[in-house]
Design goal:
Distance between the termini: 41 Å
Number of strands: 0
Strand content: under 5%
Order of helices and strands: HHHHHHHH
Number of helices: 8
Shape: globular
Length: 202
């Protein structure tokens, strides 16, 4: 799995990182916890620049999470609930997920968006209550970008560190990365099977 991700990023460059990060925020095929460290590793090899990797990852992440904000804001509570009930199974978007993100946003406001971008459990979902609450898009965009920049920066730095110590962890990299993806797929299948229609997220 590590060879596949590294090869994809090497072949597609910044565009590949951007597309993976957009997809990760819309429908996570590969988690950012693997994308950005391996992107940092490729940068350390000299194939890409660290700044370019950081920008591509951040822009992709912000675009992906902004899509959820825009959809929630344009549709409003009733239509967004209808949409989730129609297609939520495929995104494994549950009532409990949205409810937690909404309560977090109501309690912390703008800080919830910033902190949420650093928390794997609600990184994307925090955009939904922000959109439903009609948080000014400019403020949402700035806060999301700052949070995403920090998150992608930490993961990219991990990739640079990985490159420096590759000889010490080489035997574990592929099994661990494969395990992470397999676990993500298993969780997705479980959530897909156990998904229930959303009654009320207000």
């Amino acid at each position: 799995m590590s060879d596949f991700i590294i090869g994809f990023i090497t072949d597609w460059g910044y565009l590949g990182i951007f597309l993976l990060m957009v997809a990760e925020n819309l429908f996570p095929p590969i988690p950012s916890e693997l994308i950005m460290p391996f992107a940092g590793y490729v940068a350390a090899n000299g194939d890409l620049s660290t700044m370019g990797v950081l920008i591509a990852g951040t822009v992709g992440s912000v675009l992906g999470t902004s899509a959820w904000y825009v959809v929630a804001r344009l549709l409003g509570l009733a239509r967004f609930t209808w949409l989730c009930n129609r297609f939520g199974r495929f995104a494994t978007l549950s009532e409990d997920d949205i409810d937690k993100a909404q309560h977090w946003f109501e309690r912390h406001g703008s800080l919830a968006v910033f902190a949420g971008r650093l928390m794997p459990a609600i990184r994307t979902l925090i955009s939904v209550p922000a959109g439903l609450a009609k948080m000014p898009f400019g403020r949402f965009l700035v806060i999301s970008t700052l949070g995403s920049l920090i998150w992608t920066g930490i993961l990219t730095a991990a990739g640079l560190l990985l490159h420096e110590n590759y000889h010490a962890v080489e035997a574990y990299i592929d099994p661990v990365s494969t395990g992470v993806v397999v676990l993500a797929v298993v969780i997705y299948i479980w959530r897909f099977i156990t998904w229930k229609p959303i009654k009320d997220i207000g």
